[in-house]
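Exercise 3.2. Students should predict the tertiary structure of the chain below and write it as structure tokens, then compare their answer with the key that follows.

Predict this chain's 3D structure.
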Amino acid sequence: MTHVLLALVSGAISGAMLLALSHLAPTFGAGSMVRDIDRPVLLGRSVTRRASHVMGMAVYLALCAVFGAAFAVFVDLGVISGYGMIPIFAWGAVFACLHGLITLPLEGHGLFGMKEDAWFPIDLVVMSLLWAVVFWWLMQLWSGIVSFS
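Answer key:
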């Protein structure tokens, strides 16, 4: 059970690191931010853009944590063969698909974020694979401290 908690924490840490990078990237990149022209609504009520942004980050961090814990549960059940790079990259692809097909449409971004712009799906896949890299690295780090057997 310890490794499920470690995977949950690793998933959340991975998501937090990527959130930080995604907020820093426009400063060092082309400087173009996606302009959100929709009126932000949360549970049927109008909210500020900041509140909407914070809720989006919270949902993303929760999703990252749940996906980390779910990976460990599937390893426990024998569905996934361990904490190797290939299974975690495949899990990152599953993360991208479920996030693009379920979470983003529920948040009002359309399938794979296509309502926002054409680069959103590419960003989603790249971020999910980067999440997998950081998650794999953290799980390898934990494996030196805690036995996963």
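Discussion points: The mean pLDDT is 82. The helical segments are 2-28, 49-77, 85-107, 120-143.
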